[in-house]
User: What shape does this take?
Amino acid sequence: MDWREKLKQLKRDIVGPDMKPVSSIASALADNAQKPKSERVYFGLGLDFGTSSTKAVVKMQTVDRAYVVPFRGTASAEQPYLAPTRLRVTEQGGVELGDTGIGGWVEELKVRLMEEPWAHAPAWPGASISARPAGLATAYVALIVRSVLGWFDMHVKPTLGTADIQWALNLGIPARDFDATEIKEAFHAVARAGWHLAVGGGAVTLDRAERAVDAARGNSFSPKGIQKEAINVVPEVAAGVTAYVRSPQHQLGAHVFVDIGATTLDTSLFLLGQGEEGFKYVFLAADVDISLGALRLHRHRATQLGQLAFAKFNASNPLKPIPESVQDCVPNSAEMHQIDASFIDRCLVSIGSVIVRAKRKAPQDLSVVDSGLLQSQVDSGAIRVLRSGGGMHLALYQGVIDEVGVRVAPGGKLGLRVKPLRMTELLTPPGLDAPELQDGDWSRLAIAYGLSFPIDDIGIFVPPSEVSEPEPPRRKDHGEGFISKDQV
Assistant: This one.
């Protein structure tokens, strides 16, 4: 019996007479007091490996409670659940999450892993030590997992008595890259190797991480403390809407998911269906742009403002008059408007192109898939837009989504006649243990929360490559109905 079957058996063992899951760990253990003390308890760790911050949620698989893990000493006091996605590396290959002042910071770990996971390069600009993105990401994931398990052993494990704890780990991956074999395999190897180093003991070093991730690429690799089948990579979109699809607000049919991170603008359009096997996500199109995230917007504005001021007064020419005050160096409102306009245009292309490509695969206003991938009825009213990420509340991105909706609607510039886009908020799920969560920050944790579910409960994922465009309608041969003079 594999771990999935064991989990299903445990679910059957601890449900009440009304066949509804118990609501807390304490009641689950109380209900099973007569069982052997070595009773197995299954936990899932959802790891949202973001471009700027990483989030972790631990969930007992058979009850309605999930813990958001704080990162004391690594995260800021204002945002304890967000661990910066960066790694301190020394010239000797030592690695740390905190600022030791030795070596250099390696940032954009996820972006590097998405682009060239196995390419050697200096660990940071000017470093004498080289590394591969897969090795750096493995070291980072190992330190994060070790931190999570340390927190778990201190705050949750004492409540479980002598239970035998079994783990599953889901690592998020952009929907676009779930369809890219090399990138998907790299994320999977990083997850396996990172877990292996975290629970194996000893110092985490860059050399150990490099060797572990190479070993994890092989089918025979067996990570310590977990069944290798229990470590998976899951499309972030599907994880991000896990709470949504289990809430009364969910609807079947077409959805656009827009994740606005610090570095990336991640957009996908999928059709949500439901059958005997659970939820199904049919991805029609997806894209990740590493230049359109919220931090990229901030840096774009700063760079463009500086260039405008410099050009406006030709500051490189010492013969030009010096402005009377700093106010004279500020670009006018029309020039500043153009700064955002150029960024907005790129965002419109990124999100709009996903809808254009998806429309080719679902020509009936994104309501059904002719290939039969969805068997259930779908909503014909609107395409629901679900947003996530730290930049989702910025007015610029909300305006972009609204403008895309105008352009693809009947009468819009693109002539696509797509259904209207309707914003839908992701509601905070019940049973979420996050006492320091600030208002409005739930969306930043939605992906990690969804990843903490068993992969079989999250759903079935159909990547864009498996959804083909329908055959064009056969043109009628008007000659077939033509009556020649010989037939008269």
Summary: The first strand starts at residue 40 and ends at 49. The domain at 37-249+428-458 is CATH 3.30.420.40 (Nucleotidyltransferase; domain 5).
